[in-house]
Amino acid sequence: MAIAQSLSRPIVGAPMAGGPSTPALAAAVSNAGGLGFLAAGMLTTDRLVEDVHETLKLTDRPFGVNVFLPGAGEADPLAVAAYKQSLGAEAQRWGATLGEAVGGDDDYRAKLEALLAEPVAVVSFAFNLPDAATVAALQRAGSEVWATVNHPDAATAADDLGVDAIIVQGTEAGAHRGGAVDSADYGVLPLLRLVAQRTGRPLVAAGGVSDGASLAGVLAAGAVAAQLGTPFLLCPEAGTSPVHREALKAPGETVLTRAFTGRRARALVNDFVRAHTAEAPAAYPEVLEITRPVLVEARKAGDTQAINLWAGEAHELAREIPAAQVVEELTAEAFSAVAALVERTHRWPG
Fold first, then answer.
1. Is the distance from CB of 127 to CB of 42 less than 8 angstroms?
2. Measuring CA to CA, which of 57, 195, 219, 247 is 20 to 30 A from 188?
3. Distance (Å, rounded) from C-alpha 311 to C-alpha 305?
4. Who contacts 83 (Cβ-Cβ below 8 Å, separation ≥6)?
5. What residues have CB less than 8 Å from 321, skipping those under 6 apart?
6. What is the pTM of this model?
7. DSSP-assigned letters across all residues of 34-65
């Protein structure tokens, strides 16, 4: 039985790169009966190893690590150069020098070797599917392998690889599109049903699940658990920046944009998003490297209009409560939602 099917509470803490995911958050989710995750993306390998060791001190329950797979390296250098030029005013405003449009693989091989040397319960992948050799090696080492998909065809490919579970990410999810096809825009419910027709692997739903009723909904649609990110952003254990926390507390629309990193990600709409989404090319991590100095300075200044404020569509449901309380209360609310539905069905004809 896959770990996702054996959780006492059907909640997975989404890996959130860039700061929000911490050992304290991962451990809190796991200790509450869910499955916590660390985010390896945008970290050095040494920092990843440190985070794994710290999490092991905080929990004896299973937890996972998410890894960004390298992209295909197909960025259009002319489009990237034009986008960098368009950001000149932003850089001048913050007294920053725009970064160089370099590619890179996020130290993928070194991180994989570290996870093979010191296995964790689950290794999940985003931005692409791992190859068969990587899946087999991690499984031999004792780790389950989870793949992230946002298109039905990717689920078929993941099934063929023999992964242990498939994370089905709908367009409602905050932050980066985790599948290989970042332009896919399936909602989580229809995608779950389409994927369930193609594979018998355990499915973990991601996107828009922020209360008990929505958790019950994805479980009814075929998921064995839900992966939640935005509901944990306001938890004290999360490494969410103060400016990001304040923005999440206010009503606001979200949109998918490449403006900050070159890969589509769902963020709260602000001035930077409005000004640069239309012209931002598909070029990850080149665009991220260009914008990073501006984002660092704007974040230091607490300017919500010039930074990436990742958030899912249902971000207004997030609360400032401990992570364990999120896990416990959403599970209880889901149980109540199911019970209420059963009660209502007694009045249906049939």
1. no
2. 247
3. 14
4. 276, 279, 280, 281, 283, 287, 290
5. 234, 235, 329
6. 0.96
7. SBEEEE-TTS-HHHHHHHHHHHHHH-SS-EEE
**Strand partners of residue 167:** 148, 204
In this structure, are residues 155 and 186 in contact, taking their beta carbons and an 8 Å threshold? no
Residue 317 to residue 294: CA distance in whole angstroms = 30
Q: Where are the chain's structural domains?
A: 1-70+105-240+320-350, 73-104+241-317
CA neighbor of 266 nearest in space, from 16, 13, 23, 35: 16
For the cut 90, the answer to whether the pLDDT of residue 16 exceeds it is yes
Q: How far apart are CA 239 and CA 233, in angstroms?
A: 8
Task: Kindly list the distances between the CA atom of residue 281 and the CA atoms of 272, 295, 302, 312, in Å, as whole numbers in the listed order.
Answer: 15, 18, 27, 22
Q: How far apart are CA 73 and CA 267, in angstroms?
A: 24
Q: According to DSSP H, which parts of the chain are helical?
A: 3-6, 23-31, 45-58, 77-86, 88-94, 108-117, 132-141, 152-161, 188-196, 212-220, 242-248, 271-276, 286-301, 323-345
CATH for 1-70+105-240+320-350 is: 3.20.20.70
**pLDDT above 70 covers what percent of the chain?**
99
Task: Count CB atoms within 10 A of the CB of residue 68.
Answer: 26
User: Which one, of 239, 201, 288, 232, lies nearest residue 54 by Cα?
Assistant: 239
Provide the 8-state DSSP code for 310.
B
Structure tokens that stand for 179 in this block? 């599948």
- 311-322 pLDDT, tens per residue? 999 999 999 999
Nearest 10 degrees: CA dihedral of 205, 208, 210, 213? -80
Whole-angstrom distance, CA of residue 101 vs CA of residue 263: 14
Q: Which two tokens stand for residue 275?
A: 């000004």
Average pLDDT, rounded, for the chain: 96
Q: What is the DSSP letter of 256?
A: E
